[in-house]
Write a structure and sequence with these properties.
Elements (H helix, E strand, L loop, with lengths): L1 E6 L9 E6 L8 H9 L3 H7 L10 E5 L8 E6 L8 H17 L4 E4 L11 H15 L18 E6 L5 H26 L7 H15 L2 E5 L1 H7 L2 H7 L7 E7 L9 E5 L1 E5 L19 H15 L6 E10 L11 E3 L5 E3 L7 H14 L4 E6 L3 H7 L4 E5 L2 H14 L3 E3 L4 H5 L8 E2 L7 H13 L4 E5 L5 E2 L9 E2 L4 H11 L5
Parallel strand pairs: 1-6, 2-4, 2-5, 5-6, 9-11, 9-14, 10-11, 13-17, 14-18, 15-16
Antiparallel strand pairs: 3-4, 7-8, 8-11, 12-13, 15-18, 19-20
Helix pairs in contact: 3-4, 4-5, 5-9, 6-9, 8-10, 9-15, 10-14, 12-15
Amino acid sequence: MEIKVIADDITVIKAGAIILGFFEGTEHPDGKLANIDKALDGAVSQLIAQGEIKGKLNEITVIHTLGKLPAARVVTVGLGKKQELTQDRVRGVVAEACRLLQKKGVDDIALIPLGAGVAGMSPEKVAQTLTEGALLGSYRFRRHMTGEADYGDIRQLTIVDTDKTILPLLVQGSYRGRVLAEATNLARDMVNEPANYMTPTSMAEAAVRLGETYNLKISILERQQLQELGMGALLGVTRGSHEPPKFILLRYQGNDSPDVDVALVGKGITFDSGGISIKPSEGMEEMKGDMAGGAAVMAAISAASQLKAGTNVVAIIPATENLPGGSALKPGDVVTAMNGKTIEIISTDAEGRLVLADALGYANKLGARYIIDVATLTGACHVALGSGCSGALGNNQELVDKVITAAGEAGELMWQLPMYEQNREQLKSDVADIKNVGGRWGGAISAAQFLAEFAGDTPWVHLDIAGTSMSDKERAYLVKGATGVPVRTLVNLVLSLAKMVK
């Protein structure tokens, strides 16, 4: 999709559709919509009077202009009550409108800066939001479909404003929105891939392509190197698979310091059968998405490079499959992590925390100032917070607060869960330093307490995206399948941390 920003009057724009907003409680069209209404001989006013246009959030009304305007269609979108408007609501309504028009075969859309000046939204923020909404809402994954699509893609989106003086701000905001949305869609593409196409080797190859495209330093550690580093937890998980593990490192140098400011650690289980503790067969196909955390941190570091974040960032992705087999890890086995801690295996289906244990250890070896890990880690978090909210847990409240603020800016819901000592006690083992499962209750918290043992004293936050990495339906700017959560949160965080590391 080409995205343009121009200074002009929306009423003279030739396009398949032009989009304008309407607030709930408004009795008459005003501003640009009033001019549109006049050109359409009062059609908008009539629809308002008839109650068809009410302005309720996400209400979409398509009016054919029948040659009375250069644009073929006028689309009014409900923005809800003016006092309740947020940046995320604008993002969602633009996504809904673009998706509807896309399905109608419209490939050329123009719109004004919806909600500009409301809820503290600057021209830059509005342009970013419109761009994100359009790109995220119109996303489709069709790589493995051989038939012709029912409808095409949106070819062009034009943001139109009459004020030439704010054009540079609109351009800047639209660029940032494009970078964030395309990074999110990159993560979606990776997660939506079948596991036979997105193997650990495929993830490593994707990382190499990102490195070459966005000037990132790339290192891929192979099995022999992992053995030399003592990564017994990660290597234990790999034992049941014929696919070789890959320990992926992407580095972005945002300042002159040799230090690593932020380590983004992402779980990269490209398929999770549960291993010997095998999962039920129903729904197991969704376990191709168990590398969503890894995809998210890869996409986020590529966006940080494009936005020239003043932070040194490393993305760490321990990638492997978790499968049963004659050599597979067994319940009751003991493995030794990179930091020397021994781990009793209670369930081989709690493998994500094992690969993360060694990845966190490696982040500490690099001397990272802050560590954020992202993982589809526990069904318990999904049960606790549902499908729309990720869990955040950590050992540093200031960093947790920054992560949640970054999530709020992205519109990605996140809730902090506690780190109580009693949940740490659930992990006591009779034969090793720690066991990898703490029982049924408080599973999301005990899993985070396990990871805390390997994060050490470094300020660290764990994001559990088990419930939010996939969506089972279209809503706002989410589409069915992979969501790309929390790519935009991570980018916002990296940009904000640049101020702390100077």
